[in-house]
Design brief:
heterodimer; A: two-stranded antiparallel sheet; 4 strands; B: mainly alpha; 12 helices; about 5% strand
């Protein structure tokens, strides 16, 4: 049984690789970019889902971690000439202005930096619960953004960074997305994962069963932040330009929308809804453009975002569990679906 | 810094603090009764300024009439938000309600962008508020005096409402325990709606005075004041109306003083509130005037 599932998983990864190979050479730049965004949002959604969905910590500071990752990666990968061009107001500080790293170590550095920031933030913030944690992490996210706006000689302040080498391609984004999925799935099914879920269900009960609350919360928070940082680095490299305004609360809101729509504690749901929402945001772009109703041409700028916020409300109000709830995709279920006589385990029915 | 300059900063701080206080009351009331951060409160505040703006500019009605009308309209908007976004989720897990609140906030902002346009608009200020008064060597806009007076007057009216009237008693009962209050014959839904009505009206007063003081309005103007006023409510002790006012004053005066005393930190002004919040949450999580809540197992 297990062997069959493993083989099926490997086959599907190979199929995905063939698809990427095909897409890389045959799709136009716009489609490739959307696919990249889908994969990056999958990474970001999963990282936030680990903190919010699986550990039950309502954290709203995700944009801050992404900003840390994006800036670290960008500053490490940018060519010296590009750095010279960007920092005309004030020169870049010492070690950064003379080093250029390859992409992968920079991404990892971005992730580690975000995890380190999460460690610093977590020390005070994770003592808080519920609403207070939400508002404190939101506050920390904003503080990171304010700091980045003011440190002219490190982040170039409000001007942002331009000319980040575009290393992100489909292989990078999907490769890292798959690594993220594998790491998170094994984490969730390990003893740590069970401890996270226990904390989510009931903190006091978890503590009395001998789970170190603070340690496990920190671990979840830092791993989530690590992947958020990596996702941020990929995003910065994909867009080629970043500035502090990009990392407003709106970005956290977008990722929150993904995990709520997908189901708060489902990896599969997050993956599906990351693709659905990213593609839908592009498909619904026509809403912002002039629309011809036959009798009049109407242009309502901003309608797309109204639809999206309304969508979030509808999901929360009427489908509280999202697409998948806490269910996961598994080969067993899929195969059972196609078998004529479904047998319950043990074979009595 | 001379005494005059210092007093000038203090008056500015007090008037900013009064605005924070008015909005913070709405947060604290809703939190007290529903245990919910009403993320949409900042956007209700924004809506109030637009109602007043359109009343004065488009319908060219006299300002006092428009302001009263805008305040009542905002109160009704508060009830609508409560009925649509929160009422159906009363028994849902907390995280769902919080997400619904964030959703409501974004919906209001985006609707405002679509309906009112994203470009900032200049808010008309009646001459009555604009006159500059000289007190010794300090020159102060009349509005700077009016704001704290209005805030304190409204605070006393609210305290009377909460502590002396029947609906205030119902509010206090519901904030202690929904079920027991219902058994005692209190109409819980009505009381919650009434709380949103009062809180939103206070936000509207704050919003209109905010727009008179900083006469530029745009759809996202409520976000940062909204967050800061929630912080003010937490600092004062959430659930406590007097505490919210105290927290508002601390935040307002602190912010102005930070910029005045340490001009090099001006860029960090918006981070000040969050740092204060985190310090308070670590050392006194229930706030300055909050009651201690023990955890039930």
């Amino acid at each position: 049984m297990k062997k069959r599932n493993l083989i099926l998983t490997i086959i599907s990864i190979i199929v995905l690789a063939i698809f990427i190979f095909y897409a890389d050479s045959n799709f136009d730049a716009y489609q490739v970019r959307i696919l990249n965004l889908c994969a990056i949002y999958t990474i970001l959604g999963l990282s936030m889902n680990l903190i919010n969905g699986f550990t039950g910590l309502f954290s709203l500071g995700h944009a801050g971690f992404m900003a840390v990752g994006a800036y670290t990666t960008a500053l490490l990968t940018m060519s010296l000439a590009a750095k010279e061009q960007n920092f005309f107001m004030q020169p870049l500080v010492a070690p950064l202005n003379s080093i250029v790293w390859p992409f992968l170590p920079s991404l990892l550095a971005g992730g580690l930096m975000a995890a380190f920031v999460a460690y610093l933030i977590g020390a005070p913030a994770l003592r808080l619960k519920g609403d207070y944690l939400a508002i404190a992490t939101l506050g920390f996210g904003e503080i990171i953004r304010v700091i980045f706006t003011n440190t002219q000689n490190i982040t170039n302040g409000a001007l942002g960074l331009k000319g980040i080498p575009s290393s992100t391609n489909l292989w990078w984004s999907f490769g890292i997305a798959i690594v993220t999925i594998i790491v998170l799935l094994s984490l969730i099914n390990s003893s740590y994962g069970r401890a996270f879920k226990a904390i989510r269900e009931d903190e006091i009960a978890a503590e009395s069963m001998g789970i170190n609350l603070f340690k496990h919360k920190s671990i979840s928070f830092m791993i989530g932040a690590f992947f958020a940082g990596v996702g941020g680095g990929l995003l910065g490299s994909l867009l080629g330009t970043i500035d502090p305004l990009m990392f407003r609360f709106l970005l956290t809101f977008n990722i929150l929308l993904i995990i709520v729509l997908g189901g708060m504690s489902s990896v599969t749901g997050t993956i599906i809804s990351a693709f659905v929402i990213t593609i839908a945001q592009e498909v619904l772009r026509f809403l912002d453009e002039p629309m011809n109703f036959g009798f009049a041409v109407v242009q309502i700028t901003g309608l797309r975002m109204v639809i999206f916020s309304a969508l979030l409300m509808v999901v929360v109000l009427f489908y509280r569990n999202g697409l998948m709830g806490s269910r996961e995709f598994s080969w067993d279920k899929l195969i059972k679906l196609f078998k004529r006589n479904p047998l319950v385990k043990g074979g009595t029915k | 810094m001379t005494l005059d300059v210092f007093l000038q900063h203090i008056t500015n701080g007090i008037s900013l603090g009064s605005l924070y206080a008015l909005i913070a009351i709405g947060y604290t009331m809703v939190y007290g009764i529903l245990r919910l951060i009403n993320f949409a409160h900042g956007d209700i505040f924004m809506m109030a300024t637009y109602f007043a703006f359109y009343g004065v500019v488009i319908f060219s009605l006299p300002w006092y009439f428009v302001f009263v009308f805008a305040i009542i309209l905002t109160g009704i908007l508060g009830i609508i938000v409560e009925k649509t976004a929160y009422k159906t989720l009363r028994d849902a897990p907390k995280i769902s309600i919080l997400i619904s609140a964030i959703g409501a906030s974004y919906l209001l902002e985006n609707l405002a962008v679509v309906i009112f346009g994203g470009r900032p608009k200049a808010f008309p200020t009646p001459d009555l508020f604009n006159k500059v008064v000289q007190v010794g060597n300090i020159s102060v806009q009349r509005l700077t005096f009016i704001i704290p007076v209005v805030t304190v007057a409204l605070l006393f009216m609210l305290l009377y409402l909460i502590n002396k009237t029947k609906s205030g008693m119902a509010m206090r009962a519901v904030s202690k325990d929904h079920e027991t209050a219902r058994l005692m014959g209190v109409d819980v839904d009505k009381t919650i709606s009434f709380t949103f009505f009062i809180g939103s009206m206070l936000a509207a007063v704050g919003g209109i005075m905010w727009a008179l003081k900083f006469p530029q309005i745009q759809p996202l103007m409520g976000v940062i004041p909204g967050l800061k006023c929630f912080i003010a409510a937490v600092i004062g002790g959430i659930g406590n109306v007097t505490g919210a006012v105290v927290g508002g004053f601390i935040l307002g005066i602190g912010e102005i003083m930070l910029v005045a005393l340490l001009p090099s930190l001006t860029g960090y002004r918006d981070a000040f509130a969050f740092i204060l919040l985190i310090v308070i949450l670590i050392f006194k999580p229930t706030g300055i005037m909050g009651e201690k809540i023990s955890e039930k197992v």
